[in-house]
Amino acid sequence: MKNIIVLICLFLFYATSFSQSPQVTVSFRLEELMSHGDTCASVYTIKQKQCEFPRNPVKQAHDTSSIDWNNIPDSLFQRIKCDEYNSVTKKSYVIEYIFDRIEYAFEKIYTFIISRIKCGKSETMEIKFPVKIRSFFTTINLGKIYFVPGKYDISEKLEYSLTKNDFLQITLPENSLPDY
Asked: Could you state, in order of their start, the residue ranges of all structural domains in the chain?
């Protein structure tokens, strides 16, 4: 009987500990536009970089960021801290990318550096955006992305919404990135 009570207490402790952790999930589907007669295989590398500013402890409300993301002062950029997470390399024409981490996403800048080597030629696509609304649980779904070399800031194209459970969903509308 004593062992059962200890097991129940341990289970409740772990269940409540997990449910109190902030979480962010980022997902997208990377696809390659194929041309007739295309015989070279592609090797893709997806690197995710996260940058954040030093700040006060995060509250759990759905506040909107006070940072002017179009005009960030140099003094703030000098204090930015960046880390690279989750590097994936695959030889494929389609890649399902999912990143899941226990952390707050608020006011972090997410950058995805997608490199492709095809027929001995290397090209890079960079997608960058900040999370502008505070939430305990954040889901970012960028949908289908076609590989098109270049740098893309999608900050103003993202759509923010709250679910019935008060989770923040961030989505990128279709055709927001070039597909040529």
From this structure: 22-171
Which has the minimum average pLDDT: 73-82, 108-117, 132-141? Answer: 73-82
Contact between 113 and 126 (Cβ < 8 Å):
yes
* Tokens read off for 52: 């954040």
Tens digits of per-residue pLDDT, 80-115?
Answer: 888 888 789 999 889 999 999 888 888 889 999 999
Yes or no: say if 108 and 101 are a contact pair by the CB < 8 Å rule. Answer: no
> 94-101 and 23-31: which strand pairing?
antiparallel
Q: Measured between alpha carbons, how far apart are the two ends of the chain, in Å?
A: 67
The pLDDT tens digits of the residues spanning 148-172 come to 999 999 988 999 998 888 889 999 9
